[in-house]
Amino acid sequence: MEANRGQNGIQQLLAAEQEAQQIVNASKNAKLARLKQAKEEGDKDIAEFRARIEREFQRKVAESSGDSGANVKRLEQETETKIHHLKTEAARISYDVVQMLLKQVTTVKN
Protein backbone atom coordinates (compact mmCIF):
# COMPACT_ATOMS: atom_id res chain seq x y z
CA MET A 1 0.00 0.00 0.00
CA GLU A 2 2.87 2.30 0.78
CA ALA A 3 4.27 1.71 -2.70
CA ASN A 4 0.86 2.36 -4.22
CA ARG A 5 0.51 5.62 -2.29
CA GLY A 6 4.04 6.68 -3.37
CA GLN A 7 3.22 5.86 -6.99
CA ASN A 8 0.00 7.84 -6.66
CA GLY A 9 1.92 10.80 -5.21
CA ILE A 10 4.38 10.71 -8.09
CA GLN A 11 1.52 10.61 -10.58
CA GLN A 12 -0.06 13.63 -8.89
CA LEU A 13 3.24 15.51 -9.01
CA LEU A 14 3.67 14.71 -12.70
CA ALA A 15 0.11 15.81 -13.41
CA ALA A 16 0.66 19.04 -11.48
CA GLU A 17 3.91 19.65 -13.36
CA GLN A 18 2.15 19.13 -16.71
CA GLU A 19 -0.65 21.46 -15.66
CA ALA A 20 1.88 24.11 -14.58
CA GLN A 21 3.70 23.72 -17.91
CA GLN A 22 0.40 24.21 -19.77
CA ILE A 23 -0.32 27.35 -17.73
CA VAL A 24 3.17 28.70 -18.48
CA ASN A 25 2.80 27.92 -22.19
CA ALA A 26 -0.63 29.57 -22.30
CA SER A 27 0.81 32.63 -20.59
CA LYS A 28 3.73 32.79 -23.08
CA ASN A 29 1.33 32.47 -26.00
CA ALA A 30 -0.89 35.22 -24.59
CA LYS A 31 2.14 37.45 -24.10
CA LEU A 32 3.33 36.83 -27.67
CA ALA A 33 -0.15 37.62 -28.96
CA ARG A 34 -0.22 40.89 -26.99
CA LEU A 35 3.24 41.82 -28.29
CA LYS A 36 2.19 41.06 -31.87
CA GLN A 37 -0.95 43.16 -31.43
CA ALA A 38 1.07 46.03 -29.92
CA LYS A 39 3.51 45.88 -32.84
CA GLU A 40 0.68 45.97 -35.36
CA GLU A 41 -0.95 48.91 -33.58
CA GLY A 42 2.42 50.70 -33.44
CA ASP A 43 3.01 50.11 -37.15
CA LYS A 44 -0.48 51.44 -37.89
CA ASP A 45 0.15 54.56 -35.77
CA ILE A 46 3.49 55.15 -37.48
CA ALA A 47 1.90 54.80 -40.93
CA GLU A 48 -0.84 57.29 -39.99
CA PHE A 49 1.74 59.73 -38.60
CA ARG A 50 3.88 59.49 -41.74
CA ALA A 51 0.85 60.00 -43.96
CA ARG A 52 -0.21 63.07 -41.96
CA ILE A 53 3.28 64.59 -42.06
CA GLU A 54 3.54 63.88 -45.80
CA ARG A 55 0.15 65.58 -46.41
CA GLU A 56 1.28 68.64 -44.43
CA PHE A 57 4.55 68.75 -46.35
CA GLN A 58 2.79 68.48 -49.72
CA ARG A 59 0.35 71.21 -48.68
CA LYS A 60 3.19 73.54 -47.72
CA VAL A 61 5.05 72.78 -50.96
CA ALA A 62 1.89 73.53 -52.94
CA GLU A 63 1.37 76.78 -51.05
CA SER A 64 4.92 77.99 -51.56
CA SER A 65 5.20 76.90 -55.18
CA GLY A 66 1.83 78.43 -56.03
CA ASP A 67 3.23 81.86 -55.16
CA SER A 68 6.57 81.33 -56.86
CA GLY A 69 5.62 83.58 -59.80
CA ALA A 70 4.59 86.35 -57.44
CA ASN A 71 7.72 85.84 -55.35
CA VAL A 72 9.96 86.05 -58.41
CA LYS A 73 8.26 89.23 -59.55
CA ARG A 74 8.53 90.77 -56.07
CA LEU A 75 12.21 89.85 -55.80
CA GLU A 76 12.96 91.28 -59.25
CA GLN A 77 11.27 94.54 -58.29
CA GLU A 78 13.16 94.73 -54.98
CA THR A 79 16.42 94.04 -56.80
CA GLU A 80 15.76 96.75 -59.35
CA THR A 81 14.91 99.22 -56.57
CA LYS A 82 18.15 98.42 -54.73
CA ILE A 83 20.23 98.69 -57.92
CA HIS A 84 18.66 102.06 -58.69
CA HIS A 85 19.36 103.24 -55.13
CA LEU A 86 23.01 102.14 -55.35
CA LYS A 87 23.50 103.87 -58.71
CA THR A 88 21.95 107.05 -57.36
CA GLU A 89 24.16 107.01 -54.26
CA ALA A 90 27.26 106.27 -56.34
CA ALA A 91 26.49 109.15 -58.68
CA ARG A 92 25.88 111.45 -55.73
CA ILE A 93 29.18 110.80 -53.97
CA SER A 94 31.45 110.00 -56.93
CA TYR A 95 32.63 113.61 -57.35
CA ASP A 96 33.59 113.80 -53.65
CA VAL A 97 35.42 110.47 -53.81
CA VAL A 98 37.38 111.56 -56.90
CA GLN A 99 38.33 114.86 -55.22
CA MET A 100 39.46 113.05 -52.07
CA LEU A 101 41.58 110.60 -54.09
CA LEU A 102 43.15 113.42 -56.13
CA LYS A 103 43.98 115.30 -52.95
CA GLN A 104 45.64 112.23 -51.43
CA VAL A 105 47.61 111.50 -54.59
CA THR A 106 48.75 115.06 -55.18
CA THR A 107 49.64 115.89 -51.59
CA VAL A 108 53.38 115.73 -50.96
CA LYS A 109 54.58 114.93 -47.49
CA ASN A 110 58.00 115.88 -46.23
TrEMBL record:
Gene Ontology MF terms: ATP hydrolysis activity; proton-transporting ATPase activity, rotational mechanism
Keywords: Hydrogen ion transport, Ion transport, Transport
Keyword Ion transport: yes
GO cellular component: vacuolar proton-transporting V-type ATPase, V1 domain
Ligase listed as a keyword: no
Superkingdom of this protein's organism: Eukaryota
Subunit comment: V-ATPase is a heteromultimeric enzyme made up of two complexes: the ATP-hydrolytic V1 complex and the proton translocation V0 complex.
Family membership: Belongs to the V-ATPase G subunit family.
Name of the protein in question: V-type proton ATPase subunit G
Lineage: Eukaryota, Viridiplantae, Streptophyta, Embryophyta, Tracheophyta
